[in-house]
Amino acid sequence: VSSIVPESCLLIVVGLLVGGLIKGVGEKPPILKSDIFFLFLLPPIILDAGYFLPLRPFTENLGTILIFAVVGTLWNAFFLGGLMYAVCQLGGPGLNHIGLLANLLFGSIISAVDPVAVLAVFEEIHINELLHILVFGESLLNDAVTVVLYHLFEEFASFEQVTILDIILGFLSFFVVSLGGVLVGVIYGVIAAFTSRFTSHIRVIEPLFVFLYSYMAYLSAELFHLSGIMALIAAGVVMRPYVEANISHKSHTTIKYFLKMWSSVSETLIFIFLGVSTVAGHHYWNWTFVISTLFFCLIARVLGVLVLTWFINKFRIVKLTPKDQFIIAYGGLRGAIAFSLGYLLDYKHFGMRDMFLTAIITVIFFTVFVQGMTIRPLVDLLAVKKKQETKRSINEEIHTQFLDHLLTGIEDICGHYGHHHWKDKLNRFNKKYVKKCLIAGERSKEPQLIAFYHKMEMKQAIELVESGGIGKIPSAVSTVSIQNINPQTLPLERVLPALSKDKEEEIRKILRTNLQKTRQRLRSYNRHTLVADPYEEAWNQMLLRRQKARQLEQKMNNYLTVPAHRLDSPTMSRARIGSDPLAYEPKEDSENLPIITIDPASPQSPESVDLMSEEPKGCVGLPPSPEEDEEGLVMRVKEPSSPGTDDVFTPGTSDSPNNQRMQRCLSDPGPRPEPEEGEPFIPKGQ
C-alpha cells in the first residue's frame, strides 16, 4: 500500500484506528500535548535535517528560500487572516464575535509549511535536488516567522490597545528571533566541535556530545522565545565538519544511524498522535469557516508562489519553470506544528479554540492525504526531473570544485565580489584559523588523503601480521611493506579489497576535498608589480623602431612620390611622338633596365615587394646576355637576412642616396587591396 499512499497518511489512519479502539473500550485517548511535541518529538527530526543538510544547494539557493520562507509566509498569514475576518463578519451569528487579531493569529498558525510533513512526502517521491531544497528549506526557515507572528498576536490579544510602537517592536522582534536563534546554534556548534578535540581517549561518549550540545542549543533558544529550529540547524551545520574530523569512524556511524532512527521514530509518533488526537479532541464544526479556510489556504499558496517566482526569476540564472512553480505550490503541506500551536492557545483569550483546531486538522488531513497522495502521479505526469539515484563520480565532483576556483579567479580579475569570492574568503579563514583551533593533532595540517592512506596501510599491515597469511592482501598496502612483512611470491590472481560503503564514502570525500589545492595566496593583480620579462624590453624596442621606420617611409612617400602618367591611347601616343620626336626618342642605355627584387614570402601582400636592389644589369661588370635582354624586367629572389640582424636598420649594398631616391619614387604601390577571407593575418616567413 505504501507505494501508492504516503507513509504519513498510513500512520494517521493507524492513529485514527487506535484512538477509535481506545474510545470504544471506554477509556479517554491521549492527546498530543504541545510540550511533548516541541520538547521531545520535534528536535530529533530537525537535528537530523540540519546535521545532514546538503550545504551546497542550500547556500546556492538561500536567497530564493528566504524569500519564500519570509515574504511567502507573511503574505499567507495576512492574506488568510484578512479574508477569514471578512468571512467571520459576513458568516452569520456563530462567527461574528471572532475579531481581527484572532483571525490573524489563526492565519499565522495555518500558513507555515511543515518540515515534518514535507520530509515524509518528498523523501518518497525522489524529486530533484533543487525543488526538494526549495520546499524543505522554506519549511525549516519559516519557523522564525511563525514563532514571531504567533507570540506577537497572542500578546496583542491581551492588550487593550495596540499602538504603532508595538507594531514596530513586533517587526524588529523578527530579526531578534531569527538571528538570535542562529547565533545560539553557532555558539553551541563551536563548543561541540572544540569538545570533540579532546575525546580521543574516550571514544564511547563522542556521539553523546553531538546530541547533548544540539539539544542544549534548542532548549536555550526556546527558553528566550528565539527560534529553536534555526538554532538546531545552525548547530548541526557548524559542528559537523569539525566533529567528523575528530571523532572515530565508529562514532560517526553511531551518530548517523542513531539520528536516522530517532527522527523516524519521532515522525511515526507525531503522525499516529495526530490521528489519536483527532478522535480524542473536542471539535466544533462550522461549514463556512472550515471550507473557507481550506479554499483560501490553497489560493494564498498559489498566488504567493506565482508572484514571488515572477520576481525571483528576474535575478536567477537557472529560472524556475511553470512545472517547478506548480510542485512548489502543491508541496506546501501543513502538519503537526500547526496542530500543536493551535493546541497551545488559551481558552481565556480565544474561546473559539475548538473551531480553530477543527479547521487546522481538516487542512492538515487535506494537504497530507489529497496533496500527498496525488503529488507522485502528478510528478510522473508532468515529467518533472527526478533526483539522480547514482552518486556523482569523483571526476564530476573535482570538476565542480575546479569550476568554483575558476569562477573565484574570474571574479578577482573583474573586481566583482560575488558569492564565489566570499565563499573562498570564508574557506581560507576556516583553513587558516578555525581548523587549527577546532581540529585535533596533525589532521588540521596534514592533507586528509595522506593521513587516511597511512592509517589504512598501518591497519592492514597489522591485520596481515596477525593473520600470518598473504592471500588476502588488499591493493592499498604498498609493495615495500609487503616485502618486509612476508617476502613470498604474490598469487597470480589479484584479490580486490572489499570496501564498505562508509569507507568508500570517506575516500570519496577525501579525494573531493584534497585533489584541488591549486589556488594559493598570491598578490592582488597590479600592472606596476608584475614581474618583468627580460626579453620583453628588447622586443618592444625593436617593434617600436620598425613601426617608426614604416611611418617615416610612408610620410616620405607622400611627399616624394612622382605621380604616374596616365596611359594614353595609341592615337595620342603617335601624335605626341610626331610633335616632339626628340623627347620620345629611345635612350642609348635602354638595355640597362632596373631589376625589381621580389620577396616570395607572400606574393598577395603589396608590402612584400622589396625595391632595395635596383641595380642595373651591367653594374657587375659582365656584359648582359641576350636572354636577359629579351626578358626585360628580371625578378630575383631576395636573400634571407641573417637571424640576428634587424632588417630595417642594417645597411645594405644598395643604400646609396641615388638608390634610396629611386626606391622612394618607385615604391608607391597604389591603393591597398582588401584582404581576402582565406588570407593569413601574418604572412608566412615574416
TrEMBL record:
Residues 501-528 form a coiled coil. Keywords: Antiport, Calmodulin-binding, Cell membrane, Coiled coil, Glycoprotein, Ion transport, Lipoprotein, Membrane, Palmitate, Phosphoprotein, Sodium, Sodium transport, Transmembrane, Transmembrane helix, Transport, Ubl conjugation. Its main location: membrane. Residues 582-686 are annotated as: Disordered. The gene is Slc9a1. It catalyses: Li(+)(in) + Na(+)(out) = Li(+)(out) + Na(+)(in); Na(+)(in) + H(+)(out) = Na(+)(out) + H(+)(in); Li(+)(out) + H(+)(in) = Li(+)(in) + H(+)(out). It is found in: Basolateral cell membrane. InterPro entries: Cation/H_exchanger_CPA1, Cation/H_exchanger_TM, NaH_exchanger, NHE-1-like, NHE_CaM-bd. Gene3D superfamilies: 6.10.140.1330, 6.10.250.1040, 6.10.250.2020. It comes from the Eukaryota. The chain crosses the membrane at residues 36-53, 65-86, 98-121, 133-153, 165-194, 224-243, 264-285, 291-313, 325-344, 356-379. It comes from Leptocoma aspasia. Belongs to the monovalent cation:proton antiporter 1 (CPA1) transporter (TC 2.A.36) family. NCBIfam families: b_cpa1. This is Sodium/hydrogen exchanger. Residues 651-662 have a biased composition (Polar residues). It is a multi-pass membrane protein. PANTHER family: SODIUM/HYDROGEN EXCHANGER, SODIUM_HYDROGEN EXCHANGER 1.
